[in-house]
């Protein structure tokens, strides 16, 4: 099966297709996606895979890499400060992580409401767990995520990239320059 993205003869969109190719090539090599092949020429970027699901999984991984490069990055100062309080339910431990900020160009399109994360609301915690959280915050001189409005104990790092459907099954129009070709 293959998924083809045609060039559009527009410098901005075509630069994005080239960028996707470079990220996809890096992911394929570094993450051992042996079941994926890439072909890039003057007409299109074509991704070959065993199935639509395998191609989708690969492209979702590419999107995560893109987000980590441009949307969800930490400055040197943020890495030193470690301001976000995290909780790992598997190990039952708290930790500190750096805040994140998008790169300057992406930052022009991101608002505070764009940031999403998995969390537990402080008000929803039982009293024993609140006591553990309060002690950890006091020991480390930190606050929960949310700025006092609705304090949240993070279970995952906040991300600001848009949620996108990769190769959506619904609402595809046949005249779009993206093509999915099955066997």
Q: How would you describe what is shown here?
A:
The structure is a single chain. The chain is an alpha+beta fold. The chain folds into 2 domains: 2-71 and 171-181, no CATH class; 76-154, no CATH class. It is built from 5 helices and 8 strands; from the N terminus they run E-H-E-E-H-H-E-E-H-E-H-E-E. A 4-stranded antiparallel β-sheet has the order 2-3-1-8, covered by helices on one side. It has a two-stranded antiparallel sheet with strand order 4-5. A hairpin with a 3-residue loop joins strand 2 and strand 3. Helix 1 (11-30) crosses helix 2 (52-70). It is elongated. The model has no long low-confidence stretch (mean pLDDT 84).
Descriptive tags:
2 domains; 4-stranded antiparallel sheet; 183 residues; alpha+beta; two-stranded antiparallel sheet
Strand order of the largest sheet: 2-3-1-8
What is the mean pLDDT? 84
Q: What is the subunit arrangement here?
A: single chain
Question: Into which percentage range does the β-strand content fall?
Answer: 15-25%
SSE sequence, one letter per element: EHEEHHEEHEHEE
Total number of beta strands: 8
Calculate the terminal CA-CA distance, rounded to whole Å: 6 Å
Helix fraction by DSSP (H/I, runs of at least 4): 25-40%
User: Per the principal axes of the C-alpha atoms, what is the gross shape?
Assistant: elongated
Category by helix and strand content: alpha+beta
């Amino acid at each position: 099966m293959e998924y083809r993205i045609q060039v559009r003869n527009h410098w901005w969109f075509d630069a994005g297709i080239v960028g996707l190719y470079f990220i996809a090539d890096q992911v394929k090599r570094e993450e051992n996606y042996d079941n994926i092949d890439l072909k890039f020429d003057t007409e299109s970027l074509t991704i070959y895979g065993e199935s639509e699901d395998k191609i989708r999984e690969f492209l979702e991984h590419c999107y995560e890499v893109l987000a980590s490069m441009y949307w969800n990055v930490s400055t040197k100062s943020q890495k030193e400060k470690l301001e976000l309080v995290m909780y790992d339910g598997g190990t039952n431990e708290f930790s500190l992580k750096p805040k994140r900020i998008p790169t300057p160009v992406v930052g022009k399109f991101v608002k505070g409401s764009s940031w999403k994360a998995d969390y537990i609301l402080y008000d929803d915690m039982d009293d024993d767990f609140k006591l553990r959280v309060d002690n950890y915050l006091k020991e480390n001189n930190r606050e929960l995520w949310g700025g006092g409005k609705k304090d949240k104990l993070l279970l995952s790092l906040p991300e600001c990239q848009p949620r996108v459907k990769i190769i959506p099954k619904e609402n595809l129009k046949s005249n779009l320059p993206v093509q999915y070709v099955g066997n």
